[in-house]
Amino acid sequence: MFVDTVKIKVKSGDGGNGAISFHREKYIANGGPDGGDGGRGGSIIFKMDKKMSTLSNFRFKKKYVAENGENGKANRSFGKSGKDLIIKVPEGTLIKDLNTEKLLADISSESDTFVLKGGKGGFGNTHFATPVRQTPRFAKPGESGLELDLQLELKLLADVGLVGFPNVGKSTIIATISEAKPKIANYHFTTLSPVLGTVRHKGQSFVVADIPGLIENAHKGSGLGDTFLKHIERCKMLLHVVDVSACEGRNPEEDFFIIKSELENFDTTLAKKPFFVVGSKCDLASEEQIESFRYFTEKKGLQFFPISSATNYGIEKLLDALISKLATLAPVKKFTISEDIDFDQIRKLKEKNFEILRSGKYLEIKSLWLSKVVSMLDFKDNESLAYLRKTLEFFGINNALKKAGATPGCTIKLGDFVFEFSE
Q1: Closest-CA residue to 344 (of 121, 122, 117)
Q2: Among 30-39, 146-155, 412-421, which stretch is predicted with the lowest mean pLDDT?
Q3: What's the gap between Cα 121 and its chain centre?
Q4: pLDDT at 222 (0 to 100)
Q5: Residues 6+ away with beta carbon under 8 Å from 326
Q6: 265 Cβ contact partners less than 8 Å away, ≥ 6 residues apart
Q7: Helix (H, G, I), strand (E, B) or coil at 391
Q8: Which long-range contacts (CB under 8 A, 24 or more apart) does 252-258 make?
């Protein structure tokens, strides 16, 4: 099944907590703090996989979580870093942040990656020892991992896109000029998803995509057009395929205008792409029909190539022209990544975020990161309490409490810890 858009949730690993430990060894009294640092959380890494052609692997698994870092240990032993989680996607995948709608990555080559780093490990109590504070009974918790809601969108990478009404011979053309083996039958919408094929001709090669489902009002959702028109965006050029035999009673000139209009209505840049007009099924058309349509296209200054996939008539001439034209065109389009996203800053803001709520007779500090700090403090230890007071002051929580109405002696709740407010 061809799937080109999915929504998933990803979370990088949390950093491990620093350890609170003191050196213990026979004959050595007061060995001092030796708590090791926590390990870094695993990162989420998106990479391209050439073997993948759709996003169908993501249909059922929607959440991806990297491994957390281990907590620090005694004897200055660092915690083990969490394993990175590598997520493989097809070539041409765009990664967007659903909340901000910003484009985070365009995975269009093997060198392209998108990395969501895991949280840093917290410092062990070794880091907090000073000449006047020789037995710190607190450590720093690890940073939380980052959690994002993402949309993965596949936009095929191809040099040439085949567009045209259903049943005009596009599938037969791509099967003739490349190794692709699309379903071919004499009815509309035989092709239900884009088909890619690599063309090799006279020592050169390029990729062709057969885009299905274009009919009148495709840009509004008729047929399959609005689903697959987006896959033309990356193509360097287009082949506009028209059935010149008019076997089904269609008018080739009218078909040409309708498809051109659909491209313009979907995205004006599509209609401005370089293109050749290909007259298909010439083995079924009269000489008069072919020449009439040739006159129509050349009068518009367009290059016209009459072909027959059944007899190979005109195929070599078309391939020669394509290779020559492609050599003059810019590389396949890459989308511009949003440059103003600083995930480290987002993490810091998230970590330092807090809220002051009034709950009955006391004020409550709601903060995930501060609750983690409190969980690692020894409240029987004056140095731990001093560290907490300094933290509340440094991050502006004391001022926020005052603005919320806190006065000396007022009861403050932070997680399971309750204390009296003092300036």
Answers
A1: 117
A2: 412-421
A3: 26
A4: 44
A5: 159, 160, 206, 236, 237
A6: 219
A7: helix
A8: 252/279, 252/289, 252/293, 252/296, 253/293, 253/296, 255/164, 255/165, 255/168, 256/296, 256/297, 258/165, 258/216
Cα–Cα distance, 170 to 282 (Å, whole number): 13
**Residue with token string 């600083």:** 342
Percent of the chain with pLDDT over 90: 37
> Same domain, yes or no, for 171 and 151?
no
Beta-strand relationship, 5-11 and 63-65: parallel
> At residue 221, does pLDDT exceed 50?
no
Distances (CA, A) of 414 to 18, 70, 402, 417, 421: 21, 25, 15, 5, 12
| CA separation, residue 394 to residues 206, 208, 387 (Å) | 60, 60, 10
pLDDT in tens, 111-120: 899 999 999 9
User: What does residue 420 show for φ and ψ, rounded to 5 degrees?
Assistant: -90, 140
Does 345 reside within a domain?
no
Match 């027959």 to its residue by tokens: 308
Considering the domain architecture, whether residues 88 and 184 belong to the same structural domain is answered as no
Write down the residue that tokens 């890619």 correspond to.
Answer: 196
Q: Does 335 map to a domain? A: no
Closest CA to 223 of 258, 188, 247: 188
In this structure, are residues 18 and 140 in contact, taking their beta carbons and an 8 Å threshold? yes
| Whole-prediction pTM | 0.76
pLDDT at 4: 79
Provide the residue range defining the domain that includes 316: 160-326
Measured distance CA(210)–CA(177) in Å, rounded: 12
Q: Which pair of tokens denotes residue 180?
A: 């692709």
Q: Summarize the confidence of residues 216-222 as an average pLDDT.
A: 45
Angular region, 360: left φ>0, alpha ψ -120 to 50, beta rest: left
274 with 310, same domain: the answer is: yes
Within-domain flag for 336? no
Distance between CA 38 and CA 71 in Å, rounded? 4
Q: Give me 253's structure tokens.
A: 């000139």
